[in-house]
Amino acid sequence: MRIGPDGEGSHAGIQQSGKIPLVVALVHCLSCSGSGDSIASVADYADAYAHAVCARAATCCTADDFETLTGGSQAACLQQVSDNLNTKAQLVQVGIQRYDQVAGAECVRRIQSASCVEVFGVADDASDPCAAVFVGASVLGEACDGDYFCQSEDCESQSCVTPPCTIGSCPAGDYCIVNTGCAAIIAEGNACTGDDMCGSAAACLGRVCSPLLDDGVACSTNRQCKSANCGLVPGATARTCRQPYCLGS
Fold first, then answer.
1. Is residue 245 a part of any domain in this protein?
2. Are 30 and 119 part of one and the same domain?
3. 209 φ/ψ sector (left φ>0, alpha ψ -120 to 50, else beta)
């Protein structure tokens, strides 16, 4: 979403209202562990990550988007982001996942310095260090009770294995069936049971591969929308395809 035609618009209005005080950049938080190259504990990472995300939200989001996503205040934003990390912290505490403190610091630095589109865009980015902060603690061959136990992200018959394929690893014209392998993409108009079966230019709607949806049309997943974003607009209670949140000016 755009901040405003002059590049300040809604964000300037937020500041003037006193509703969302901006958070100072968190360079100091990266030294909580005693090193600028890592953040030693999950608690320190959670604090630095939450402050970095909410500071960028205050500058990248319109007032409406900030209200929709966070409740409209820095305090609410910080609480929401911290709550979302609680499950990860618990998995690390019991040894199911591990925390990479170097990736943690790189993630926070990226949030502070990357563009609004890179921080809040919906497209997957394999180079994003934030995706490597928490990984399964179990290596190939070790016991598991779910994919999130495994470094390989694939648990079969309670053992960590190498996945037969991943998103992007299949040849053109194929898609990846989790735990099975690559298969041919289903053409539009044919029966389907999942969006990936229909390729990147279509989605499984009503169990039929169909064209992606325009903005304003009711949706249930990001994958169904041309904009790759299924969300709320101000005042709405049902999700529709819309432009991504918080993309700045």
1. no
2. yes
3. beta
